[in-house]
Each structure stands twice: as structure tokens, then as C-alpha cells.
Specification:
Blueprint (H helix, E strand, L loop, with lengths): L10 H15 L26 E5 L3 E6 L4 E6 L18 E7 L2 E7 L20 E11 L2 E10 L7 E8 L46
Parallel strand pairs: 3-4
Antiparallel strand pairs: 1-2, 2-3, 4-5, 5-6, 6-7, 7-8
Length: 213
């Protein structure tokens, strides 16, 4: 809370964002997170709710998200990005990294672009030219920090710097799979309206009188 930053969009992409905001307000923005039908993609995986696991191996680091079972793989075995004849856009892109002391530095490219690189539920999007450098380290025994510098020659006027922090859960915590298609967080009322539940299990939407079925 309180750390949201607006991306330095070009005028053209600011207009795209304003259009998306309007679509979100009408419940018409085609966000794959609504149905869990598609991966969240990168860098959105770093911004999901719910639990994360960070698995560090000599040859790879994995970021595993409980939300939607999203997986980010960062290769640290010395390889580079595939050549231009082999690389292709994907939701998570291609990430290769290295260790600088206690900091994992990784470079992500080959993202899907405007239709696939959705950053959050407000309708923030990046183009297929997006390139992200992430520096991730433990601040202390209970906190991991990821500092991202996002370059996008099509959508941004200057690099966009974003910082995320993750708090360690109590020892013995478990990660559970779930599917939002099960409607366990978004009950549908008798009139067909979809509600959003808060942490206490009660709707956070402004409720109005429901017409009789």
C-alpha cells in the first residue's frame, strides 16, 4: 500500500491505458486473470496476491506463485538468450541471470506484447519491446526485495523502476492450489452480479437491494 507508481507512458500508450481503465470500469477488459485461463506472465507474476515460493538451485531459480500456478524460470547456468531464429514471445518471456554476491540479477525479454503483457487489473500493459532487468536479494531473514527496471521503446518514454517486497510466512506454512473458476472468491448473486470478497469473507462491493428472483 502507498507505493504504486504510474509508468512513464508515451502519449499513445497513455491513451491506450485510459481506454483500458474505462473497459475495466465496465467489466469488459479481457483480463485472463479473471478466469485463470492463461498465465499471468512477467512482470505480473511478481505482483500477484497470495503466496510465493522462491526455489534457488545452482542452475536455475524458480518463482512459484500459488495464484494460478504461475512459474517463472531464471536460468543461471551461464547460458544467454536464444538467438533471433530460436527465440519467440511467451507469457513469461525468457529470463537468464547471474549472481552478484547475494543478489540475483536477471534479464527478461521475448514477452508477448500488448495483448499478453498485462501488468495489473487496472489495465496497465506493455508492448512486445519490453525488456526487464530484475535485481532480487534478501534484505533480512524475513524479507525478499525485487527491484525491476522496465524498458519499453514503444510504450515508455523512460525506464520504469518498480520495487516489490515479499514477507516470509511463518515456519510450516503450506501452499495450496486453487482455481478461481471454482468461484470461491467471487460469488454470483441471484441477479447475476459478481461480487468480490474481502479477507473476512464478506463482500467489499457496495451492495444494493437485490430484485426478487
Amino acid at each position: 500500500a502507498g507505493v504504486r507508481e504510474h509508468p512513464p507512458y508515451t502519449d499513445e500508450w497513455e491513451r491506450k491505458y485510459e481506454r483500458n481503465i474505462a473497459l475495466v470500469a465496465q467489466d469488459r477488459f479481457p483480463d485472463p486473470q479473471t478466469t485463470c485461463g492463461l498465465p499471468a506472465g512477467f512482470p505480473r507474476i511478481m505482483n500477484l496476491p497470495d503466496v510465493f515460493e522462491f526455489v534457488v538451485r545452482p542452475e536455475e531459480t524458480w518463482v512459484l506463485a500459488e495464484n494460478g500456478q504461475n512459474v517463472l524460470r531464471v536460468y543461471t547456468d551461464g547460458r544467454g538468450h536464444p538467438g533471433p531464429d530460436e527465440i519467440f514471445p511467451t507469457f513469461m518471456g525468457d529470463s537468464v541471470g547471474r549472481w552478484e554476491g547475494d543478489t540475483l540479477v536477471f534479464d527478461t525479454t521475448a514477452l508477448r506484447g500488448e495483448d499478453g503483457t498485462i501488468v495489473d487489473r487496472t489495465g496497465l500493459v506493455l508492448s512486445d519491446a519490453a525488456h526487464v532487468v530484475t535485481r532480487m536479494r534478501k534484505l533480512d531473514d524475513g524479507t525478499i526485495e525485487a527491484r525491476m527496471v522496465i524498458d519499453d521503446a514503444k510504450a515508455l518514454e523512460s525506464p520504469w523502476r518498480v520495487t516489490k517486497r515479499y514477507r516470509k510466512l511463518p515456519e510450516g506454512s503450506r501452499v495450496y492450489d486453487y482455481a478461481c473458476a471454482e468461484n470461491n472468491r467471487n460469488p454470483v448473486t441471484s441477479s447475476g452480479r459478481t461480487l468480490t470478497l474481502g479477507p473476512d469473507g464478506q463482500p467489499i462491493d457496495k451492495l444494493q437491494e437485490e430484485p426478487p428472483p
